[in-house]
Specification:
- This protein has a five-stranded antiparallel β-sheet with strand order 1-2-3-5-4, covered by helices on one side.
- The relative contact order is 0.26.
- The protein is mostly beta strands.
- The chain has a single domain (7-25, 36-102), classed as Translation Initiation Factor IF3.
- The chain contains one helix and five strands.
């Protein structure tokens, strides 16, 4: 898979998000009601495409992993993702994951 060296720094209130897109294809955003599951060591059973690597780093005065995870889920929805895989927690509250899009619409596991 080709790595596109495009990194954007976007702020979601108190949680800036770094995004490295892995594909030149851009997808429509998902509805706020769509749940974005997290996968740490186990990957989804469904086939998927990796679309971006995202990292959240909460501001020093509001160091919350919950806020970081919420910001990553919001960003995943905005860029058309269905789930976050390989989610890891770094330096206490930083959260990193890969946004994926399932290859079939009916596959959400």
């Amino acid at each position: 898979m080709r790595y596109v060296p495009f990194v954007a720094l976007l702020g979601f209130g108190c949680v800036p998000i770094n995004v490295a897109y892995l594909s030149p294809v851009r997808y429509d955003s998902k509805s706020r009601e769509i749940p974005i599951p997290l996968y740490s060591s186990q990957l989804p059973a469904c086939a998927f495409k990796e679309i971006a690597i995202v990292k959240a780093r909460p501001e020093a005065w509001k160091r919350s992993t919950g806020a970081a995870v919420d910001a990553l889920r919001k960003k995943a929805r905005q860029i058309g993702g269905d789930a976050l895989v390989r989610v890891s927690f770094d330096q206490g509250t930083d959260v990193t994951g890969t946004v994926v899009r399932f290859e079939r619409d009916d596959c959400m596991q």
